[in-house]
Records
---
Amino acid sequence: MALNPNLEMHHYYRANAFMHLGLLDRIDAEVQEGLERNREGGQSKLDGLGPQAFGAFFSSDFPRAVRLLEEWLRGRSMRTYWAHGLTLYYLGQHARSVALLEEAARSAAAPAAARGRAALASVLAALGERTRAEKLIAHRDRGPYIDHHVANSLGAATLSLANATKPCAGYGRRRRPDCRAIPGIARDPLLGSAPERSAVPALPGGRAER
């Protein structure tokens, strides 16, 4: 940043870092720093919307999150995204949430499809649609892609279906034994407050961690 302080992208990268570190209260100010370096908006504003939307999402400010996510999606000419579907679920729009997550799960891009399937599994499990949720969780065995978003959603689904006490069990090679250290997970309405126990049930195809 010191080499070229006039570039706005530095600030958006920092805002994304704050989001992943759980420093959610620092995101908006950092994005604003970037916007002040490019007042023309356009792509610059769009790049700043992403971390702001996810900051609101992980802060459980779902009305703001859905507003920012929908603006972000329009700017990218996208119909839906896994976080958009989850936010609608949290706002009580269950039917629309399921429909959009089903669409996300059909994405041609493997990461987007995996996130969509996992998020859909967590919502269906919370809605009591056990059979459909289990099929989506089992799909994990047939697809190698996993990241922290996929793992969190699969953990939420497992918690709903099996009353698991370690929602991030099966996090596998991510090596995060304290799953509640993941930004936002302790506040996730799909996860609730599960008591600590010694048993760590593994996700289908996953590897439990203790």
Note: The radius of gyration is 18 Å.
---
Amino acid sequence: MNIKCENCNAVFEIELTETKVNCQYTCVFCWANIFKSDKHFRPIKIVTYPRKGVAVPGMIRTTINTFMNNYKDGLVSYKLFFDPYDEPKKDWEKLHLRCENQNEKKQNDGSIVLEIIFNHSENHIYIPTVLFTGIFIFLHQGMREKILSLIFNVCELLGYRLFIVDMVESFHENLVQRGATCIDYETVEITKFTNLEIQ
């Protein structure tokens, strides 16, 4: 059977089983609760992708959330949340990843270590590294490249281009050596030729 998310218009095919259990299906694109059942079910495939501007942010949020949930060292707690763009712009939005080290005694909401800026009118995503380099405070080396790889996979699937901007010289040089396309001295584009394997 097919179920539709009325929030973003995505359609999913699911299969019900005979197992009696209360289940709720959450849209992987916009996180809206779209289906409840007293039987167990499993998703089979995406029948229709959501309207433009919903698929990419939702899939990236789901991908990062799954990745962070699977992070096993127990030192990091995190929150993912959308923010309005600094200046009101149609088809622009931001997704923030905020992390805190649970070993630290400071009482705060942690630090924003990843900012993802969506420009839906041009199908572009920008990640400023002013914040992104701070991910090393909380996560092991190599996590940065892994998260970039996951984000790029979503971009490639849905036709978006991924740019790393406001780069420090060392990270710019590192990604160019890995095959990223140099746009200018502080910007590169991640492409299918960029090697994001942990080195």
Note: Strands lie at 2-4, 11-26, 33-48, 76-83, 92-101, 111-119, 124-128, 161-165, 181-184, 187-190.
---
Amino acid sequence: MKKLIDRGSSGSEGWHSIVDYIDCPRKGRFSEDHVREEEEHYHYRGHLLHVGLAHLYARRMKDGRSKYLEPLDAVQAYAEKHPSPHRDRWLEPVLRCLPHYEAYWGDERKYEVLGVEKVLRMFVKDGMRRLPFTARYDLMVKNRRTHRVEIWDHKGTYAVLPKVVESYALSGQLLGLERIGRAKYGKRWGGVKLNFVRLPEDPNKEPEFGRPPLKVSPLAVRNFTTTVKYAHSLRDRFHDLPTEEVPGSYNDMCWGKYGKCIFRWHCHRGGD
């Protein structure tokens, strides 16, 4: 039976777990307690898109066609396994998009697929301690011409524009991948690329694609481990407190127009 690649997270040592403590210590605790509120529609769209692309590239690995589901079948299987109120909105657009993606980029023979949906790990020295940090990548490839290793991060986007590329320069998730990639591959490291997909809901509009390199901040890459240590220190500081006594960062973004905190109801009413 062919496999469904069911995407996971980077775990409790990954960027999205520790950064919550910097944004809001109570949010960090909620994340660790696996408390969840409703899923935003764009998150569900991203899950479907990532699953489809994961299977497209996994099938290009050795024996991949015999191991993994076809991309469209995988998206359908994921939607059945993970019911969502957003299914009717995004399932069909994603299914329409994937053949366009494959036709646009072709077979991409200049790239060898090295891994799909895998986790990389490094350790950050903090005094006598070695703090673990993990980062999950969407796709790792080797350019057959340059022999450099690249990581591609799939991004659903509203537009494939320079200002959107710039907005990821300080993404902690991507900075972590860049930092690990440099350490692991040295001169063979080719950097992170943003694999953009603009996914229209309107069936009369075609999707758009782009794959620009990530323009990382040199200072942020250099100081990244300092941020990791700071996040761990916050988690350690509030470790013994009950969740509702952990400080919360109360601000307009909790219920903001640019994205509501998924834990807002827990802070609003208390309890689980």
Note: Strands lie at 111-126, 129-143, 149-157, 189-198, 208-210.
---
Amino acid sequence: MPARVRGNVLVNISDTVTVIGNVISVTGLGSLASVVVAPISAPSFTFTIQANDASAVESDNGARALSIAGRAYGNAGDQVSVGGQVTTISGSGASAVLTITLKSSGASVQVPANSCYGVDVVGGN
């Protein structure tokens, strides 16, 4: 069954989605740092990515992670976009849980469907 993401858009397996979230914490340095992200639309939910799975506006003040384009980010509250391909859907509609395979690392994360956008908005930032 398809899931419904932000904007009531239907997504299916193999579709590309994006989660926009805020950095909660960073462990490590550079493009391989582990970054905990909370989706803006589901802030009580978190997932962990490799730093270069995200697109982010470059920040300063000791940012420790490097985005997909090599820009420094990683301060708590920094906004990131994380894109990937839907590989499984558990449930249906807006309450479904999506497993997405991330662009850079190839790792999989599970996210609520209603925290995703049905268009790939991860750019080269």
Note: Confidence is low (pLDDT under 50) at residues 120-125.
